[in-house]
Amino acid sequence: MYISQAFKGLHEWWRYIIGTLAIVIAVVVGQIPFTAAVFIKAVSNGDSIIGMNETDLLSLLESNLNLFLMLLSFAAGLLGVFLVVKYLHEQSITSLTTARARIDWKRFWFAFILWGLVSTSFIFLDYYSSPENYVLNFKPVPFVILCFIAIVLIPIQTSFEEYLFRGYLMQGLGVITKTKWIPLLTTSLVFGLLHIANPEVKQLGYVVMVYYIGTGLFLGIITLMDDGLELALGFHAANNLFTALLVTADWTAFQTHSVLKDTSLPEAAGFMDVFMPVFIVFPILLFIFSKKYKWNNWQHRLLGTVIEPSNDLTNSIKE
Q1: pLDDT for 43-84, tens place per residue?
Q2: How far is residue 235 from each of residues 58, 91, 177, measured CA to CA in Å?
Q3: What are the residues whose beta carbons fall under 8 Å from the beta carbon of 227, sequence distance 6 or more?
Q4: Is the separation of the CB atoms in 272 and 126 below 8 Å?
Q5: What range defines the domain where residue 188 resides?
Q6: How many domains are contained in the chain?
Q7: What is the pTM of this model?
């Protein structure tokens, strides 16, 4: 039913190609401030950004400024998604978000608080079990600035990814292929592969891609089972926000003035990094969500056919 929300708007295949290109352009435009700032800083230092790797580029700017400028591209991307949906597809943002009459913010906050508590517990459990791997990184003024940036922009970043992958592309591929499993697997795979350039992959190895793709699959499943993005939006926002505020490392994508800094240099991802979240924690979360929201008919919701409603029904839905 969630994918079928796309039938409320204009849904020809070519619109999704144009829309995706427009969103990519919006992201590129949003990267201009970061690129300009890095270029100016490099020139002032007598350096050239040509040949610099991602770690070198990220080290040029103060971390709060770096985070702010990096996240601007996601804000531009989210604006691009909303404009494409509204004007190219003539579809409402509500129907892109959920099959319900209105967005259910209680679902968002339930997933946000639940995963915030779980992820925070994991971080401090690791801290207390391996204190030698951490140093206190807390500095009051930079941390307060980080809080302002993170609380405003990180949910925008995660919302962009959810609206693009579990929203726009999930609905688009669904109405084009008339399937649910193709958009579920495709968006999960693409979501994971787009993280391949992250410094975590270089540090921990390609096995960490299991985590990224598995996370995409988990978010896709809860979107289809719950007929909306609310749970995925809440989970993803909590995951990135609490991590950015609580812990950083020299080999992570987010370099922040967090409370703790992980000083370990793991050569490969371990069981706790990849396999426990994907194969133990995520299934437990699926069980919790399924009981709370009374999910049923899993096969149809995940593998069923997407059927276009009749013109009369579609028109009545729009009205």
Answers
A1: 887 777 776 666 667 778 899 999 999 999 999 999 999 999
A2: 26, 25, 28
A3: 1, 2, 98, 99, 100
A4: yes
A5: 3-318
A6: 1
A7: 0.93
